[in-house]
Amino acid sequence: MSVCVSAIDCVVGSWGPWSSCTSPCGVGSTERSRQVSVPPRNGGTPCPDLKQRRGCFGNNAICSTAKEVAKILPDSFKRNFKDPWRRPHMLIKEEKASYCVHLRVKQASAACKLKLWSAQLVRERLVCAECQSDAMSKSNRCGGDGLQSTRTFWAAASVPGCHGSWIRESSSERCRCPPHSVLFV
């Protein structure tokens, strides 16, 4: 006498939500998964894929900030800096308190060695960059003032070809950088 054993097919639950994009800015991937509710037995249909992955493009709020390039000048420009481009928001003179950002230089191009002030922008040097009222945008911050633990870029406004990257370490409100620092413009 033979015992008839019926086959049990695999049954899976519904897909879970897609994960957040692996890259906060730019191309990355996202995945989702589902669980096995009933495993296959006695030669039943095997389970289908339990994971799905697809490409995504991260466009986090920080991305536009990460793309900004800081334009910097030596602090000797402090005295009566005039906006050479006559930008409309620069004509309304309303003094706002300066703030300081401390940034760790990660890269500097060879052209930076051509001027004394920009030659100090060397790898791993901690730089104090001051954002003064004149250079602030409508949002009361300087363009390219960096992101905590994210590499952003800078260019020396008066030294052609001098540019690099840095990582923001800290910032302080109502502050002035010591002599021989840099200014955002």
Automatic annotation (TrEMBL):
Pfam families: SBSPON_C, TSP1_spondin. InterPro entries: SBSPO, SBSPON_C, TSP1_rpt, TSP1_rpt_sf, TSP1_spondin_dom. Keywords: Disulfide bond, Glycoprotein, Signal. The keyword Disulfide bond applies. The keyword Signal applies. Residues 10-60 form the Spondin-like TSP1 domain. PROSITE patterns: TSP1. Residues 92-178 form the SBSPON-like C-terminal domain. This is Somatomedin-B and thrombospondin type-1 domain-containing protein-like. It comes from Acanthochromis polyacanthus (spiny chromis).
